[in-house]
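Bench notes, afternoon.
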Amino acid sequence: MLMNCTPKGQTMLMNCTPHVITILTDGAQVIIPPCGVVPRLSVTRVPAGKIDGIPVARPVLGETENLPFPMAGTTLIVSALVAEANKHRHDLASPGELVRNDAGVPIGCKGLCVYWSTL
């Protein structure tokens, strides 16, 4: 298993998304490649009827799959859904507010988001 980590101060940032993450801060960039591990929530789709003959389902989110165990000094960057579903984990963050270019294409994010109450 490939593990790409980017040191930032005293913390290692491990990108557990399938995309390169570019964090834009004060004119600088922190680029974090994917590590090859992508946690996901299991999803069950429950039939919910039809709209104009098109089947509609209601997704029910389940357990988190493929989430690494906490590692001392490491923050795992995961999707917002995974971070929210595991807000008891203080080692999880998700990409912050997206920054887009003039064409509307995302080029990075403004920091990270956490889902637990205090740092």
